Amino acid sequence: MTIAPPAPPDPAGTASTNGRGGLSPGSLVADEVSAWFSGRLVLESVSLEMPKSLVTALIGPSGCGKSTFLRILNRMHEVVPGAELGGQVLLDGRDIYSADMRATEIRKRIGMVFQKPNPFPAMTIEDNVLSGLRFSGTKVRNKKAVVQEMLERAGLWNEVKNRLRALGGELSGGQQQRLCIARALAVGPEVLLMDEPCSALDPSSTRRIEETIAEIKNDVTVVIVTHNMQQAQRVADQCAFFLAEENRPGHIVEAGTTSQIFENPTDERTADYVHGRFG
Asked: Per-residue pLDDT tens for 41-65?
């Protein structure tokens, strides 16, 4: 396994119109990652490379550890009472769980969009976009330019440009999810994690989110959990198939390019899942 050298740190407390002086994707590598909840092993020896500027889809039935793995990737696992972790997660070659890496900084560099849209409902659209920058103490030279650029990246600008002072909670579900994407992008993450971001959305909103993923992947590495096999085929460059079996906790059965996983998988269980024979 080839690991890239650590990227130089960004200057603290400064930002241009796009939050970090230019979005720059990072690479993630999980190396023999295992996870426990209250002593129960739920994820076993997961190794996966998530290259920069690609979309990696995590697929598999419910309860096989996909969302747990996603939370591990930005240190949300450690805030769960009774949670334990083994192995390493490397961001551009550096272990995000090492003693010199602060969790708050990691979560800035590895953002998260959740299954249920969670904008700040009492904040305006504009303030929602800027909220992550404010919470992190990042100075912004041109706030209006940041708001416009991030809403454009999230495919929402044309729909809200004339009502930026409206409350985020007044938007539709699909618009709220895109607002959350804009908020996440504003702090300039290198990786964006998405946990079933379209599961509660209508087909039109789902299509717009998928278009947004395609538009931003050159600027930020995307890792997405999805139960929608058609969606995985549409948006992902590579897929990892997770499975939990009777005598084994969640693990990766097979990982590869999306075309290989769907058209020529090496494991019969993968073929059965992607063709709808179980799950």
From this structure: 999 999 999 999 999 999 999 999 9
